[in-house]
Amino acid sequence: MSVEPARTAGKRQESSAGIVRLEGNHCMAYVPGYKNDIFVSYAHVDNIPLSGISKGWVETFIDNLSTKLAQKLGRTDLFKLWDDRLLAQNAPLTPEILDALKGSATLVLVVSPGYLKSPWCQREKNAFYDLLRSKNRGSNSVFVVHRDRVEHESCPEEIRDLLGFRFWEERGKGKEPRIAGEPVPQPTDSLYWDELSDLAGKLSQSLEQRRGSAPTEPSSAFMPPRDPTEARAKRPQVFLAEVSDDLYKARKKLLGALEQAGAEVFPKAPYPLTAVEYEQALGRDLGGCSLFVQLLSDLPGRELHGSTKTIVTAQLELAKSLNKAILQWRDRELDLNEVEEDSQRQILEGPSVMAISLEELQYEVLQKAFPKPARESHASLPTGDALVFVHSDAIDQALVKEICVVLDREQIGWVVPSETESPERVRHEFEDLLLGCDALMLIYGQSPGGWVRQQLMNCRKLQHKRETPLRALAVFEGPPPANKSELGISLPSLRKLVCHQGFDASRIAEFINEVRSTSPAA
Fold first, then answer.
1. How far apart are CA 488 and CA 475, in angstroms?
2. pLDDT digits (tens, 9 = 90+) for 430-462
3. d(C-alpha 481, C-alpha 445), whole Å
4. pLDDT tens, 195-233?
5. Poorest-confidence range of 102-116, 220-234, 257-271, 393-407?
6. 8, 46, 479, 521: least CB-packed within 10 angstroms?
7. Is residue 12 part of a domain?
8. Could you tell me which of 280, 259, 66 has the C-alpha nearest to residue 163?
9. CATH assignment at residue 477
10. Residue range of the domain that includes 281
């Protein structure tokens, strides 16, 4: 009584008991010792097709999940999946269904308001959740698909902390959420396909682990140590703060990058929204983390029950009180003047908030979580061999010449880009010079502030390609002082050399000292 996803082997049929089957290939379970590999439980109401649609949401979801899982495992006939139609139609928990549940290696629960309002009697619900508790003890074998918005407190305690995949997203204040894949999944519905792919990936990993195969090594430049004992000892712990609903996808993307790199990420599941319980759970997780990362928007997030704090403020306040390293992010397109909540605007204007792209944030977070060990190559490099890349827009060439004269006098090498009008050559030469120099100085005289900012961002994007960090990074702010806009960027290693009233060679002295130092810029 199982669904076998062998697409070419047969067709779907309804059995007399109401269970969907696929006729054709009959395979053994992929995981030895189990009758079924996956047990899918859902509410009948969530699988009723809308008018003009031939298949229900859940049936389409199971079809697509089966295909994705077959692609992950390599064959369509490798696994057995139980499509729980009896349970979906609120029939009693028969011994046959309980036997199928007990005999399944993993469980997938499609949770929705309809699922939580199922009219099972309390005895049947307790029997079902008793099995969930025993199934999930010590292993990731139960997966929750959130088909629609459900308040955390409304979920049974047995499934609150399980690994979840959210197939809905907010549409704006006062509107009902959009359910991904409804009425049918479109090729452009990235939320649906991303969550489906993530679920298939986690399921395949779970099945492979139970089958006894070794876990796949993550592919990443930030790879954890290969020795398991060493990995546990050195695995960084990162707190990736809970976010407002509009940032769910962005947080999940960053979560995936951190986990792939080998970091242990907290929280593992949403916290209860009662203020006391929330702060207790938050303190337990955050206390052992070395890095706090928070994604921000104009929304303050959910408010804690029994408190005036939101999840955003509660998390940030505790991170500050524990003196954690903090990285905060906001979209660079966000207009702070349009943020309605004053308290949220103050957070967004904080000194540790970076207005950069998500890709740039990911690089910054991984750099902080996996700091590269200091290299000794700088200590052995003679001062005379140091090379400074001096870069400016064409309009500031006069300032470049004055700075190069000072560097010559201090017996420090310098290099400037060649004159070319080809954007492709400019880009390639910038990369070559940045990777080959020891320090970078950008000239901000008459050049537009946007040009300088873009060069700093280009520098950040290419840092991971360098064998060692830059010894020094500076922006020389020369004349004229009028109408000089703020760059809108702050980097820990960036030094600003302000000479608005005219060229002053003494202001370059600190930069030169950094170039001569034996350690790279922090």
1. 13
2. 888 998 899 999 999 888 888 998 899 888 888
3. 8
4. 999 899 889 888 888 787 434 333 333 334 344 334 444
5. 220-234
6. 8
7. yes
8. 259
9. 3.40.50.360
10. 223-371
Nearest CA to 457 out of 495, 487, 418 is that of: 487
Q: Across the chain, what does the average pLDDT equal?
A: 78
Q: Which of 169, 186, 216 is the last residue of a domain?
A: 216
* First-to-last C-alpha distance (Å) of the chain: 62
CA separation for the pair 385, 118 (Å, rounded): 74
CA–CA separation, 444 and 405 (whole Å): 18
Task: Say if residue 440 is in the same domain as residue 357.
Answer: no
Helices 358-369, 449-462: crossing angle, 10 deg rounding: 50
Say if residue 439 is in the same domain as residue 406.
yes
More confident residue, 133 or 512: 512
Is residue 302 situated within a structural domain? yes
Which helix (H) or strand (E) element contains residue 461?
A: helix 449-462
445 lies in some domain: yes
Of 238 and 172, more confident: 238
Name the nearest CA neighbour of 220 among 72, 366, 374, 361: 366
pTM: predicted TM-score of the whole model, two decimal places? 0.55
Identify the pLDDT of residue 2: 35
Percentage of residues of the chain with pLDDT beyond 70: 78
Residue 212 sits in the same domain as residue 148: yes
Bridge partners (DSSP) of residue 387 are 413
Residue where one domain finishes, among candidates 149, 183, 216: 216
Alpha helix positions (H), 148-226 = 157-160, 190-211
Return the H-helix or E-strand segment holding 131.
helix 122-136
- Residue identified by tokens 């979920």 is 155
Same domain flag for 211 and 240: no
Maximum Cα–Cα distance across the chain: 92
**Co-location of 251 and 349 in the same domain:** yes
> What's the CATH code of the domain at 54?
3.40.50.10140
Length of the chain: 522
Count structural domains, the chain. Answer: 3
Residues 42 and 110 grouped into a single domain: yes
Any idea which residue has 């006069």 for tokens?
398
For the purposes of burial, counting CB atoms within 10 Å of the CB of 393, is it exposed (0-12), middle (13-18) or buried (19 or more)? Answer: middle
Residue 127 scores a pLDDT above 80: no
Mean local confidence (pLDDT), 507-521: 74
Shared domain check, 208 and 243: no
Residue with tokens 């990369």: 431
Does residue 127 belong to any structural domain of this protein? Answer: yes
Looking at the fold, whether 117 and 64 belong to one and the same domain comes out as yes
Residue 302 has pLDDT above 90, yes or no: no
DSSP assignment of 279-306: HHHHHHHHHT-SEEEEEE-S---PBPBT
